[in-house]
Every structure is written in C-alpha cells, then in structure tokens.
C-alpha cells in the first residue's frame, strides 16, 4: 500500500464534485492512509457526513463550535497530527478564503492554523475558474506554496464545456502519492520503453508479442513519483498514461528504436539518462508482402513457435537478435514457402 500510515485531513467544500469525495476517501483508505474528514456547511448539502464517516471509519467534523474535542480547540487540534491537508473539491469560494487568510468556519480555520502542507483540487464552472479573481487567487495560493491538483477540462455538470472539472479521484490519489514519495530521481531524465511492437507482414497480418506493457508503465510511474522527468515510449496498449509522464506512441520496433534515439539526442545539460528497455519484437520480416497470406501463416503457426531459431532463443531467455542472421534466414525461408502457397 502506497500511503500506509500517512495521516491526511480531507476537506470537502460545497460543489457538485463533492460526490466524488466518497470515491477519493475509499481510494485513500485502500492505499493505507488514515483519513480524517472535515466538511463545510455547503458540502453537507451535496453529500452527507454519514457516507464519509462510513467510508473513512472516523468521525466527520463540520462545526467550528463542536464540543467533542477537549478545550474546544478542534480548529487547531484536528490538523496537528496530520501530514497533509487535502481539500477536494475546493470551491471558488474556498480558494478565495484561502488566498486571503479568512477563517470563518472549521475547515478554513484548520487550513489557516495548519503546520502541514496543503493541497487543493479546484472544481467549478468554467467561467468561475477563468474569472480573473479566481485566477488571481490560484496564483496567490501557488506562490504561497499550496499544491494545486488540476482542474481538468471537459463536460461539466451545468452542461457547459471547459476547464474547471475536478481531477478524477484516481488522479488526485496519484498526486498525493507523488507528494509523499522521496524525490530520489530529482533532476534526472528517464526513458522507458514498454508494451509490444508489431511488425507488419502483409496488409492484414502482424508479427507481435504478448507484452502487456504493465511493467513498463509501473516503472515509468515509479520514476515519475521519484521526481524524474519521464518519457514513456509505448507500443500499442490500452493502459492509461501515468500522471505527469510524457508518452510517445509507436507501433514497430524500428519506430521504438527511432523514438528512443530521438529522445536521447535532446541536450541533457546536467541531468542523466537512465534507459530501461522493457520489450520489443524479436524478429521482423526483411520485406513486407503485398499479398494476403492468412491461410499459410495460420497453418504454419505451430512451426513458427516451436522450430524457429528466433523463438527457441527467446524461450531460453536470450534475445533473438543475438543471431539476427539466423532469424533473418529463417524468416526468409518462411516467406518463400508462404509465397509459394498464397491463395491467388
Ligand atoms: C447546485 C449548486 C452547485 C454548485 N456547484 C459549485 C461548484 O461546483 N463549484 C463551486 O465553486 N461552487 C459551486 N456552487 C456554489 C457554492 O456552493 C457556494 O459558493 C458556497 O458558498 C461554497 O461554500 P464553501 O466554499 O464554504 O463550501 C454551487 C452551488 C449550487 C447551489
């Protein structure tokens, strides 16, 4: 679990996206965090404290004058043992309060009296987000060292389109994980190749491998969380790009090779490169057939897997490219016999 034992105070303010806070609490708890929830009065209109109490397994705090805390010092005590205050969603109103140091309810007072870092995930209508006052407040918060997660662009609950949607809970979780990760690779650039590559044989067939890309994507994500600037060169997979990672899509091994070369030729200044080749097709046809050879390749598929020098080498754990000449001559023999038997 990535957040084991991390003590987080989750603040929820009054916006439509408050319903997503339930999923966020679930994800944070699943990642091992100790989540304490505080809500503004407006937030309780969108989602009930009972839901969040059930998901976090703790009391939910809403009232500045709550007498359950000794000395009535809830507005200070509730954040003292926390390692992070995360406000998600953060309304336009709440960003304004934070930027100006207002403290007229429990959550804003907790934020003002905090000793730990603060992260906010804004969520509002596009016009509210683009209003010059909100832009100014967000800038002030950035300058004050507040971490801002999102917002994202897209369709909004009000029916309009544009910036202002709250970042999805999984992405906020990734930002929180990134926040807690020691930045051991700060200033380094990392290139990761991941996923399968496809070598076209004819207009409808490809030679490929069964790489899922999961390991490469996990490596890219871990490197990004450790502070590196990460480029992920990926074959065709349907995995989501890890947050903060630059992804380059490729199809063939040649395209992957070229992309790696291109990325490496960028000026490196003082940073270093660490290349982690994950996988690529082991063989590719020297020349593509213009005819469709489906039936032949189907009938040869068993032989392809068991008797080719390339496949044998792969199964022994060595790269087929260790003997490209043998692999090429085998591929050429296969092509010749395929051509001879192609349906015309
Ligand atoms: C139906 C409805 C939806 C709202 N959605 C948002 C929203 O998504 N973002 C936002 O900043 N304000 C939204 N508001 C306005 C806030 O609820 C209002 O500014 C409130 O004072 C915020 O209080 P708080 O910052 O103390 O939680 C909405 C209001 C209503 C009635």
What are the low-pLDDT stretches, counting only 5+ consecutive residues below 50? 267-272, 294-322
Structural class: alpha/beta
Task: Give the termini separation.
Answer: 58 Å
Number of helices: 14
Name given to the CATH architecture of the largest domain: 3-Layer(aba) Sandwich
Assigned CATH class of the largest domain: Alpha Beta
Fraction of helical residues = 40-55%
Number of strands: 14
Quick structural summary:
40% of the residues lie in helices and 18% in strands. It is α/β, with parallel strands linked by helices and 344 residues long.
Give me some keywords for this one:
single chain; 344 residues; alpha/beta; Rossmann fold; 3 domains; 6-stranded parallel beta sheet; 14 helices; 14 strands; elongated; binds flavin mononucleotide
Helix-strand layout with pairing:
Layout: E1 7-12, H1 20-30, E2 34-39, H2 43-46, H3 49-56, E3 60-61, H4 74-80, E4 84-90, H5 92-100, H6 106-112, E5 118-122, H7 126-130, H8 132-143, E6 147-148, E7 152-155, E8 161-165, H9 169-180, E9 189-194, E10 199-200, E11 206-207, H10 214-225, E12 229-234, E13 246-249, H11 253-264, E14 273-277, H12 294-307, H13 309-315, H14 324-341
Parallel strand pairs: 1-2, 1-4, 2-3, 4-5, 5-6, 9-12, 9-14, 12-13
Antiparallel strand pairs: 7-8, 10-11
Helix pairs in contact: 1-3, 1-9, 4-6, 5-8
The structure holds flavin mononucleotide.
Could you explain how this protein is built, in words?
The protein has 14 helices and 14 strands. 38% of the residues are buried. It has 3 domains: 7-180, Flavin prenyltransferase-like (Rossmann fold), CATH 3.40.50.1950; 189-276, CoaB-like (Rossmann fold, 3-Layer(aba) Sandwich); 307-344, no CATH class. Helix 1 packs parallel to helix 3 (49-56) and helix 5 packs across helix 8. Residues 267-272 and 294-322 have low confidence and may be disordered. A hairpin with a 5-residue loop joins strand 7 (152-155) and strand 8 (161-165). The chain is an alpha/beta fold and 344 residues long. The strands form 4 sheets. Strands 3-2-1-4-5-6 form a 6-stranded parallel β-sheet, with helices on both faces. Strands 13-12-9-14 form a 4-stranded parallel β-sheet, with helices on both faces. Bound molecules: flavin mononucleotide. Residues 13-17, 40, 42-43, 91-94, 123-124, 128 line the site of flavin mononucleotide.
């Amino acid at each position: 679990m990535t957040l084991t034992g991390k003590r987080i105070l989750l603040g929820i303010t009054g916006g439509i996206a408050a319903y997503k806070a339930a999923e966020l609490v679930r994800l944070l708890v699943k990642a091992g965090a100790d989540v304490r929830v505080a809500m503004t009065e407006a937030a309780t209109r969108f989602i009930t404290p009972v839901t969040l109490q059930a998901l976090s397994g703790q009391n939910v705090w809403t009232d500045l004058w709550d007498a359950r805390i000794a000395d009535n010092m809830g507005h200070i005590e509730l954040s003292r043992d926390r390692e992070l205050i995360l406000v998600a969603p953060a309304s336009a109103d709440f960003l304004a309060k934070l930027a100006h140091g207002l403290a007229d309810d429990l959550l804003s007072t907790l934020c003002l009296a905090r000793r730990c870092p603060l992260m906010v995930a804004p969520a509002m209508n596009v016009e509210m987000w683009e209003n010059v006052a909100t832009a100014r407040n967000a800038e002030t918060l950035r300058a004050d060292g507040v971490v801002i997660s999102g917002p994202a662009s897209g369709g909004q609950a009000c029916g309009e389109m544009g910036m202002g949607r709250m970042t999805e809970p999984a992405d906020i979780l990734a930002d929180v994980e990134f926040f807690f990760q020691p930045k051991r690779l700060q200033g380094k650039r990392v290139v990761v190749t991941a996923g399968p590559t496809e070598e076209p044989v004819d207009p409808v067939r490809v030679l490929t491998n069964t790489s899922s890309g999961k390991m490469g994507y996990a490596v890219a994500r871990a490197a990004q969380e450790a502070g590196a600037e990460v480029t992920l060169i990926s074959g065709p997979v349907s995995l989501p790009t890890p947050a903060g990672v630059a992804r380059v899509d490729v199809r063939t091994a040649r395209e992957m090779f070229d992309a790696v070369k291109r990325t490496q030729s960028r000026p490196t200044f003082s940073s270093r490169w660490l290349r982690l080749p994950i996988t690529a097709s082991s063989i590719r046809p020297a020349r593509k057939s213009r005819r469709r050879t489906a039936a032949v390749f189907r009938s040869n598929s068993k032989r392809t897997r068991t008797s080719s020098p390339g496949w044998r080498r792969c199964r022994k754990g060595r790269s087929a490219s260790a003997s490209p000449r043998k692999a090429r001559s085998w591929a050429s023999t296969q092509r010749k016999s395929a051509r001879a038997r192609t349906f015309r």
